[in-house]
Amino acid sequence: MEADPMTANHLRTSMVTRLRDWDGGALPPSVDAAMRAVPREAFLPGTPLADAYGSSPVVTHRDDNGIATSSASAPGIVAAMLAQLDVRPGHRILEIGAGTGYNAALLAHLTGPGGQVTTVELDHGVAAEAEQALATTGYGHVTVIPGDGEYGHRPNAPYDRIIVTVGAWELPAAWADQLAPAGLLVVPFRMRGLTRSVTFEHTAGTWRSRSMHECGFMPIRGAGAVAERNIPLADTGLTIRIDDGQPADADALRRALSSGPAQSWTGIEVTVTGELDFWLAGLDGFFRLLAGNDAVQRSGIVPPAFNWGAMGLLTGDSFAYLTRRPGRPGHSELGACGYGPEREQLISTYTDRIRAFNRSQAGRLQVEVHPLTGAPLPGTLMQIDKRNSRVIVLTEGEVGREALGAMAV
Ligand SMILES: C[S@@+](CC[C@H](N)C(=O)[O-])C[C@H]1O[C@@H](n2cnc3c(N)ncnc32)[C@H](O)[C@@H]1O
């Protein structure tokens, strides 16, 4: 059945009105206009209009195990990333991850008739659907390339802007090679399991961030794929999620539960945890504990601060994670809970780190991606050696760096 255009127009206007207060700032007028112009429902055939214009992502394809492999991203993050990308009329743009084609249409609207949009999609069937939707909505001039975005698309390079709409673990050489001088890359970048949409500039072989925005994306597939490891703790329903391939013994961690908990509170009350997770992710043994309500009940553990992935630390046979309890109105007090023979030491390390974060009044975080050659930089918040690059996370506050030097595990 054809969507009722009056209803779709109405829902599209409400969506943009909701987005205008995005992130506490104004939606850039060009992004506002593009999101009013492109009919999102046309890229989501068969999806109820209310879902197409809801605030959540819409999954369009799943693999045989039911894992989502393609979606239209949530309008909020689409708008946020387009604001980061800062497209000007006439820009040549490369998108990695065409998906439904919706974002490619927005890009085509932003760059206008003098520009060019190329979008690469790994799944050939998805690419064909995107091409079809773009053609029927008047954006048939977007070039859809079925293939692995790891390699970009050299024939249309150089690009003034590259936008990646799938979670990347590394920044492949092709993206640097195909970016024009003074160009920008916006990418959901995975750092020890934390994902941020980062705007990068590239100079003299190094990527440096200009802005960051919290987000979640499905991981990239193809040549650049690095799977997250999900380690279920036997029958507890608890899952340990590790991004960087560090070893973990599921049986030993399952046995750790029999020690009973050790808990410690910091007296630090917060409204949001901000960038605390980056501070914790700089410690060895960083992981995230996934513990839905069922799993908390079944395992009997002290509830973690966030059931979708509380930040934790683990050793061979023990683990600790973030907890919170109500503080003064609108605030939560932060603490740590640990299980296993080393639980006391782990919660002490953990709460020391929360205190250092609190003292640091850390400024904005910055991310740099360097070649693997060269000596590690001392005193940074986090360094991750990946397959082809060294990722460094820095704070603007020197106080934070001193505190960190003293607190490495
Ligand atoms: C979140 S969806 C993209 C949303 C899309 N931009 C839209 O507007 O609908 C991520 C897409 O990236 C694709 N993808 C995953 N790995 C890829 C790769 N290496 N190269 C190109 N596309 C990839 C997936 O097949 C999926 O369609």
Task: For the record, give the distance between the C-alpha atoms at the N and C termini, rounded to a whole number.
Answer: 60 Å
**What is the CATH topology classification name of the largest domain?**
Rossmann fold
DSSP strand tally: 19
The description of the largest β-sheet is: 10 strands, mixed
- Percent helix among the residues? 25-40%
Question: Given this structure, which CATH class of the largest domain is correct?
Answer: Alpha Beta
Going across the major beta sheet, what is the strand order?
Answer: 5-4-3-6-7-8-9-17-19-18
Work out the radius of gyration.
22 Å
Mean pLDDT, to the nearest integer, reads 91
Question: Which hetero compounds are present in the coordinates?
Answer: S-adenosylmethionine
As for the number of domains, it is 3
What's the CATH H-level homologous superfamily of the largest domain? Vaccinia Virus protein VP39
Task: State the CATH architecture of the largest domain.
Answer: 3-Layer(aba) Sandwich
Number of helical runs? 12
Q: Which outline best applies?
A: globular
Taking pLDDT < 50 over at least 5 consecutive residues as the criterion, the unreliable ranges are 398-409
Strand content: 25-35%
Class from helix and strand fractions: alpha+beta
Describe this structure as you would to a colleague.
The chain has 409 residues and is α+β, with helices and mostly antiparallel strands. It folds into three domains: 5-224, 3-Layer(aba) Sandwich (Rossmann fold), CATH 3.40.50; 229-360; 365-400, no CATH class. The protein is 28% helix and 30% strand. The chain has twelve helices and 19 strands. It has helices at 5-20, 29-37, 49-52, 75-85, 102-111, 124-136, 173-178, 250-256, 276-281, 293-299, 343-360, 398-405; strands spanning 58-62, 68-72, 92-96, 116-121, 143-146, 159-164, 179-191, 194-203, 206-214, 229-232, 239-242, 262-270, 286-290, 310-314, 319-326, 332-339, 365-371, 382-385, 389-395. A ten-stranded mixed beta sheet has the order 5-4-3-6-7-8-9-17-19-18. The protein has a seven-stranded antiparallel beta sheet with strand order 10-11-13-14-15-16-12. Strands 1-2 form a two-stranded antiparallel sheet. The longest helix is centred in the last third of the chain and has 18 residues, at 343-360. The radius of gyration is 22 Å and the shape is globular. The N and C termini lie far apart (60 Å). The model is unreliable at 398-409 (pLDDT under 50). It binds S-adenosylmethionine (SAM). S-adenosylmethionine binds next to strand 2, helix 5 and strand 4.
